[in-house]
Amino acid sequence: MFLDEEADQQVRWLWSKTQRCRDSELASFSHCRHRPHVTLCGAPELGSDDLAEASEIIAGQLPPLTLGTLGAFPRYRGALFLGVVPSVELLDLNARLHAQLVSGKGRRWRFSGPGQWVPHCTLANGLTAAERARGLEACADFESLDCRVSAICVIDAATGERMAVLA
Asked: Which of 42, 76, 93, 164 is the most exposed place for a label (fewest CB within 10 A)?
């Protein structure tokens, strides 16, 4: 889920602050196509039937989001993130997509399903403990941000290529 323009700019500002805590930033990570987003559902592969099913489930829903917390995943890739305050609608949308696209197809995808999903917008990955501490301090003035979802897209995480726009 891509964020509205104002939220996108605020996240990019936080990316620049975390840049000072390490050698690279998410905007230039890997294929240089990252943009601020919240992953709604992850799947290892999607075919055209999957895209049609996902579009049907989403049915134009662009849920409002509140980026309400600053946090870290210390063991998993040393990530800093803005945590999403999960609404009932957002959790339901995640559960329905995961059931249809992942578990319903016999696929497995860590961290994206009901009871495991931590909705978030990544600020930095691959940080050491010291870098995480500096990043948290650098972003400590972050205040909760209410934003709109501007689009829901399917992205190839390896290349950053936008595969489809679902809403």
From this structure: 76
